[in-house]
Amino acid sequence: MTGLREMLAAPAPRLGHYVGEFVTPGIGHILANAGCQFVFFDMEHSAFGFETLKNALRFFEAAGLPAFVRVPAKHPDLIARAMDSGAEGIVAPMLGSAEEARSVLDAMKYTPDGCRGVALAIAHDNYRLGPVLEKLAAANRRSVLVALIETRSGVAEVEAIAATPGVDVLWIGHFDLSCDLGLPGRFDHPDFLAAVAEVERAAERHGKHLGRMVIDVESGVAFARSGYDLVCYHGDVWLLQQAVREGIEAIRRGVEEGRS
Question: Cβ–Cβ contacts within 10 Å for residue 240, how many?
């Protein structure tokens, strides 16, 4: 399987898809054969529990498709359970400081890089036996932290967050950020654009990957050209609904035109 580290080393842009509704045995192969290089798997805004996560990660693994997992909150027990279920990448929502980033890393990483409780030869290492110190080090190398910057405090502290060893990706949560700035959905407002630019500069200064979600091709192209090397194209439920709506409406128009 291609891991997140290998995916991040691939030529940019890396393109993926958001999964927050549909988890079937075929989902990994469906997305991999659609050209996806990663999945953004969401436990924050879905009803997905850890059993569902564990199954989904096996489906993605079967297709060689690495996944970022957005946990419901930054609580250490949620992070540790996601890691033990097989997550390689943790998306930490509402990350507001370097201290919070360090706390997430502590829950993600084994000693000496963190204080994650040790459980070996389970889902996260494919139930393989092996020398303990080698397995701890390998798990630490595999794990990836995505800092989701989507608050005023996150933008204010983004320089310190980006400078934190172990933070791999800065990801802009554009909708929540616009709301926290008092500008819900106003993505062209100067204050919103200034906040986004601050995150972009921090990523460039500290050599971090930069990501965000888009819901149309034009935006995806524009952000990829401007330096975003991780672009998540649309979400499963909305894309399916959009495609079905377009087809249904086209059939209805065709019927009406035929009658006229």
Answer: 13
Angle between helices 76-84 and 50-62 (to 10 degrees): 40
Beta bridge partner(s), residue 91: 70, 146
Name the E strands within the chain.
14-19, 38-42, 67-70, 89-92, 144-149, 167-172, 209-214, 230-235
- Is residue 208 within 8 Å of residue 185, measured between CB atoms? no
Using alpha carbons, list the distances in angstroms from residue 3 to 15, 100, 151: 15, 25, 29
**Model confidence over 115-133: pLDDT tens digits?**
999 999 999 999 999 999 9
Model confidence at 1, pLDDT cuts 50, 70, 90, reads: low
- List all residues 6 or more positions away from 193 whose beta carbon is below 8 Å from its beta carbon: none
Q: Is residue 53 scored above 90 in pLDDT?
A: yes
If we measure between CA atoms, which residue out of 7, 84, 87 comes closest to residue 43?
87
4-259 folds as: TIM Barrel (3.20.20)
Show which residues are catalytic: 45
CA–CA gap between residue 238 and residue 244 (Å, rounded) = 10
